[in-house]
Design goal:
4-stranded parallel β-sheet, alpha/beta, 417 residues, 5-stranded parallel β-sheet, 19 helices, elongated
């Protein structure tokens, strides 16, 4: 009696899987035994253990700030300049603001996987999802107009004070350089920013790092400065950061307590911001941590329904009836002051609002009970299509935009944002 070919193949595959599983378990058990043995050896040899302990560097709060103007400082932005050690929210900002809602959703779905990966793999996965196919121009806009707000709100006050007291500032980081360089140089006057370089194809990111790979801070520091030691180094209590700041004449660490977002003593007061944040060009007003982003996506179905309802009543119904129905759907509006009259030359009123959304001119129309023309530098095709009021784009050419504004004001009131 012959055995069918399918059974023979199945038996061989099962045998092969058993052999591989046996080898895997044997290797795992062997490594576990060696690890336990080495641990026991370390506990039996106190002198050996103590000689390999990490050096105890003082806390950053003990650093003297006086007489530092001629000195050089090196530090990282992740977990040092920023109180938060997780960089996921900033990748989410790039994915959402520079990419699309679908890219942001995919990055959120990857979060459970990121939790079990080591630092290098986690960073590579976030880089690939965030940057694959992203235009260089979009990253530049997000880096200049969106990220600074969240970086400023997350600055570590103690580290910033030390950074501000020195003459030469250098930041070495494993995160992509394009994510942090604009903020560090424009707002913190950092002289050199050395970070992970990303691979590009034409005007797009490929989602991969360059041939040099992820930046390793202590190696990059030695290559950049040579034999000359920086005066001050600031890092975290991790082994990699201890290697990084060990090249410096003075070294300080940021404790785990200082990394917590709620650590009140490290929060940077708004009045101490190195430079006023004049404009935030993003759509997200909150820091998109995994939980906050998940909550946002949970809200989307109801949000889409409410948006369609409110847009519809704004387009098809009279202003007073639209206002009444909007309040029933949860919209709260208040109007202070009186509507200004037209100027003596008969031209309309120019309203300037402080939000980069089409909602401001729509609500303004409803409150004032009269039509307005919305003028902006950037407006998506979708926003232009669903807008219940007239919209006009500016060109950023001063003379041409001036003529456009004069013409629109001669026709009626204008709202610009």
């Amino acid at each position: 009696m012959t055995m069918p070919v399918q059974n023979i193949v199945f038996t061989l595959v099962l045998l092969l899987e058993s052999i591989l599983l046996y080898k895997f378990l044997a290797n795992s058990c062997y490594k576990a035994v060696i690890k336990v043995k080495n641990s026991a050896f370390l506990f039996r040899k106190p002198s050996f253990k103590s000689s390999h302990q990490l050096p105890l560097y003082p806390n950053i709060t003990t650093c003297n700030l006086h007489g530092r103007k001629s000195q050089t400082l090196v530090c990282d932005i992740q977990g040092t300049l920023l109180r938060s050690q997780s960089f996921f929210p900033y990748f989410m900002l790039v994915a959402f603001e520079g990419g699309s809602i679908f890219r942001a959703f995919f990055l959120l779905l990857s979060n459970p996987l990121l939790c079990v990966l080591n630092f290098e793999l986690k960073l590579r996965v976030m880089i690939f999802i965030t940057y694959c196919g992203l235009r260089l121009k979009d990253m530049d806009i997000v880096g200049r107009a969106v990220l600074p707000k969240f970086y400023l709100e997350n600055l570590n006050l103690h580290v910033y004070e030390v950074l501000n007291s020195v003459g030469v500032k250098m930041v070495f980081t494993s995160v992509p350089r394009v994510m942090v360089e604009g903020f560090l140089k424009e707002y913190l006057n950092v002289d050199n920013v050395i970070g992970t370089e990303l691979h590009t194809i034409g005007n797009y990111f490929s989602g991969l790092v360059s041939n040099s790979g992820l930046l390793i801070k202590h190696r990059a520091l030695k290559e950049f400065i040579g034999e000359k030691k920086p005066d001050i180094g600031i890092g975290t209590s991790s082994l990699n950061d201890h290697l990084f700041i060990s090249f410096c004449k003075e070294a300080y660490v940021v404790n785990k307590e200082d990394m917590k977002i709620g650590a009140s003593s490290t929060i940077m007061p708004r009045e101490k911001y190195p430079k006023p944040l004049i404009f935030h060009d993003g759509r997200l007003a909150f820091l998109p941590t995994p939980l906050a982003t998940f909550s946002m996506f949970i809200w989307f179905p109801l949000g889409i329904f409410l948006a369609i309802f409110r847009i519809s009543i704004g387009i098809f119904l009279p202003y007073k009836l639209a206002l009444f129905l909007a309040t029933l759907s949860g919209v709260k509006l208040s109007l202070n002051g009186t509507d200004p009259s037209k100027s003596e030359n008969g031209k309309g009123v120019l309203y300037v609002c402080n939000h980069r959304t089409l909602l401001d001119p729509v609500f303004l129309c409803i409150l004032l009970g009269k039509p307005l023309t919305a003028v902006t530098y950037s407006l998506s095709k979708m926003s232009e299509f669903i807008s219940p009021i007239k919209t006009v784009k500016l060109t950023r050419d001063r003379e041409q935009d001036r003529e456009t504004m004069h013409k629109l004001l001669s026709e009626g009131d204008v709202r610009i944002w």
